[in-house]
Structures are given as structure tokens and as C-alpha cells.
Amino acid sequence: MRTDDSGRHETPDAALEAAAKIRLLILDVDGVLTDGGIILDNEGNEFKSFHVRDGHGIKLLIRKGVDVAIITGRHSKVVERRAHELGVKEVHQRCLNKVIAYEQIKEKFSLQDEEIAYIGDDVVDIPILRRVGLPVTVADASEDVRRFSAFVTANRGGRGAVREITDLILKAKGFWKGIIDDYVKA
Fold first, then answer.
1. What DSSP assignment string belongs to 132-145?
2. The whole model's pTM is what?
3. How far is CA 164 from the centre of its chain?
């Protein structure tokens, strides 16, 4: 990602071209939808913090016909709840081999790799990042993961990184102006 003279991030042309083809965005959870922190209490409850703008971006994508799925290595009721709130119906948890879930989703939706974007943050995400049309990682991912990404977000995981990509996809597909116009008219 480049920065222009004003300090804003510029999107590489290749990422915009890839984003225009996307029909499905797949998300990791810990470190992507959250900051990676996991809080456990003495009663066994798990707490995660999600960024509200990431959620709004996911809803906007779904409204415009771009499907969203989740693949995560852990299992959490909090993830099930958040996915339900956002309208994400395709949720695969406790995936030790994320590629298996990826291939199942790809087949279910009858998609080609180039029609799928994936946001990951850790080495377990590399096999999927190597397959998809738009491989993305978050700003605080390791350099090992960044090597396999076409786009690195300006924001950290759980801090607006997902929203950057939902907006990128919506803009690349020509939906953004209409979305803004709808909010201006409201």
C-alpha cells in the first residue's frame, strides 16, 4: 500500500481490480474481527471486542449481494452471536485445517478462487491467502503473513481493518456512491 502526499493510503490498482471480482469475503476472527485478545472469567465465559464499523461494513456488503463467511480455529458462542447479528450465515469454527472449510465454502457457493477475498493475520491463514483472488492481512500481522497478501490494511485487527476491505470491495464494484447517496437522502 502506498501513501499519497496528504498521508492518506492509496490502493494499488491490482487490489482494486481484484476487489471488483469479489463475490465472497471470508474472515478470520481472532486478530481480524477482534484485536486478538481473549478474556476469560472464572465462570468460563469468553469475551471478545468487535469494532462496530467493521460490522456495518459487513452488513453493507451483504446488502449489496456480496456474501460473507467466517473461518476460525477456535470455537466461541460470542462468534456465533456476532455472526447472527451481522447476517453472516456461513460460520466454520474449530477449524484446525482452514483449507478444508475454504474448499467446502467455495464449492457450496460455486465460486472460483479469484472471486474470493480472505482476511487473515497469522501463519495458519497462509494456505488460504495463497489461493484467493484478494489475499489481505491486517496492519499488525507478522511479516511472514504479509508476504502472502496483496493488500495490508492501515488499521490493526479489530480496529477497523475489516471495514477498509468492505469499503474497498464496495468501491471497486461501483456501489459506494449509491451507498453514500442513500445516507445523504435519509
1. SSEEEE-TTS-HHH
2. 0.91
3. 9
